[in-house]
Amino acid sequence: MSNAPADRLSLKPDLTVATERWRAFWAGEMLDRPPVVITCPAEGVEPAPRPTYRQMLFDPLDEVVAAADAYVRSIHWGGDAVPQFSPGFGPDTFAAFLGAEIEFSREQEDNTSWAVPFVEHWEDVLPLQIAENGYWTRMRELIRRLAEVGEEHWVVSHLDLHSNLDALESLRGATELCVDLYTQTEMIERANDQVRELYATIYDTLHEDGRMDRTGTGGGWIRAYCDGKCNTIQCDFAALIGPEHFRRFATPDLQAEAEHVDACIFHWDGPTALVHMDDLMAIEAIDCIQWVPGAGAPLLIEWLDLLAEIQEAGKSVMVYCTLDELPQFHERLRPDRLFYQTSAPDRTELERTLRWIEENS
Question: What is the set of domains in the chain, with CATH numbers?
Fold first, then answer.
């Protein structure tokens, strides 16, 4: 891992201390307390909304970058929260890089988008490669401009890269891909291998464009931090397949993605994906799990037994919670195997929360 210079971020004067806590966390250790990503509104600064997917894709880059800068500066980044911004055109940005078009739900909705499946016959589109359709060029220029404006103040966090089988689902459609796993198994294996290889190319190119090789980066849309390579990975399509297909297709993908970075969080979504627990825990390079119960399921506070089981399997957990819920998590879980992401109404409550965690860790 490279060292992020301590004087590079004006919005995080205690960057050195936060970096040391994060280093310990990624090593499976703890200093005085677990990392705490806690934010509140910045004092004396006008609130600023986060630029939407639509704005990042279509608005003039000067306006997008200025809006992102204002958004980051409108937040007080307390505890071990490192000021950062993760750009994106939506969850299917990776698929857009491979040739899919992105659609938005309706004219007034700026932050919900998806890829339009276009693959009818895999043999017509293989080998998969980065398409010259504007999305890749736009993202690279956006990240470069963000890095210029953020330099010495905040860092560019990596993208929410729905790669692996998630990208193939976006290109083909969920139902069609499920059928293809049985009827065109070797063809899907070829496509999946190509996406796996492209992950490293896409990650590294954007990592360099965003100057993350000099400043470190966040965990994509999760506000973690690593002074080396970091990202959150996922395979939401895993909820639609059984263990055999998970081991054949998803496991090699996730292992390769996790091994490509220095610090890796896995976004694990929904009860139907729990069938893959043992296989997921066996991927050594995954450092931390973010469990999301999914729509209609009990809230995270109701899954303390699962979180404890994940810790017992050797993984850390990311806990997102309210300030009122935090003591319940802290009482039940190992503090050396977790980090918190939460928000406070003001600096007073933020500092009180940090003191409580320090006194109880």
Answer: 15-359 (3.20.20.210)
